[in-house]
Amino acid sequence: MSEQKLDHFLGELRAAPSRMFFGYPSALSHIARHAQARGQRMDDLGIKVAFVTSERLYDEQRQQISKTFGCPVANGYGGRDAGFIAHECAEGGMHITAEDIIVEIVDRQGVPLPCGEAGEIVVTHLSTGEFPFIRYRTGDIGILDDGLCRCGRGLPVLKEIQGHSPDFVVARDGTVMHGLALIYILRDLPEIRSFKIVQESLATTRVCVVTESGLTREMAAKIEREFKARLGKEVDIQIKEIAEIPLENSGKFRYVVSNVP
Predict the structure, then answer these.
(1) Residues 49-102: pLDDT tens digits?
(2) InterPro entries per the record (predicted)?
């Protein structure tokens, strides 16, 4: 999104304020950061809640959106094929829409796992009259909770949604870790505006960055050092500065992509 388009979005929000708005977390947090950079106040519009979905919601995105627009952020989890699977209540519980959805957490062999253990989220939809939708593998990793939410709703709760399987990276020694292990390295560098990490293989990882005032040798050296500390000292870390991080074909933004099976 160009600065002109971001200014347009802010103008539209102020010209026709609503009680809620809805979007990708990456897009809403980007708009919020732009408003902050412009010194434009957006917490006086009367917005009651910002709904986000379709991407993993990171803590810093939630904080940025909430601070800028002066409202809580409600997360939603679903899939293009499965529809909405869970919604976040005011207490923070991700309630499964169990009236018409069955959610299982399974291991690599498709065997259901107990509550508290991480595995792939599998969905059976009970309201698809045209076509059976049975034990659909989402590719997402999650954990079921065996407790009740403080809000009092009796619906089952997803304790954690860790992300899509390609959001995980594999170290040279075979250790599997969440992409957050690499994301936080770049998040801690204030000079970096945006980035994308692509693990091409166990031997090569590309890091594309957009910076405020240019990629320095010191910054590149720090990124390489920290990445090697997690992925392995023999891994080739290719760092490239670009003007803008392109979106996926779906219009979503992904911080981490792993091509390692």
Answers:
(1) 999 988 788 888 999 999 999 999 999 998 777 788 999 999 999 999 999 899
(2) ANL_N_sf (IPR042099), CapK_Type1_Caps_Biosynth (IPR053158)
> What are the chain's domains?
3-71 (3.40.50.12820), 75-167 (2.30.38), 171-258 (3.30.300.30)
- For the record, the structure tokens of 100 come out as 């018409």
Q: What stretches of the chain show up as alpha helix (H) in DSSP?
A: 3-15, 25-38, 59-69, 180-187, 217-231
- Residue given tokens 């994301």 in the structure block: 183
Q: Which residue has the tokens 């997803």?
A: 158
222: pLDDT strictly greater than 90 = yes
Average pLDDT, the chain: 89
The token pair at 217 is 């040798």
Q: What is the pLDDT at residue 165?
A: 62
Pairing of strands 49-52, 73-79: parallel
The residues with which 197 forms a beta bridge, in sequence order, are 207, 256
**pTM for the full model?**
0.68
Give the separation between CA 66 and CA 57, rounded to whole angstroms: 12
82-116 burial by CB neighbour count: b if 16+ within 10 A, else e? beebbbbbeeebbbbbeeebebbbeeeeeeeeeee
Distance between CA 33 and CA 61 in Å, rounded?
Answer: 10
Query: What value does the CA radius of gyration of the chain take, rounded to a whole number of Å?
Result: 20
- Tell me, letter by letter, the H, E, C secondary structure of 139-159: EEEEEEECCCCCCCCCCCEEE
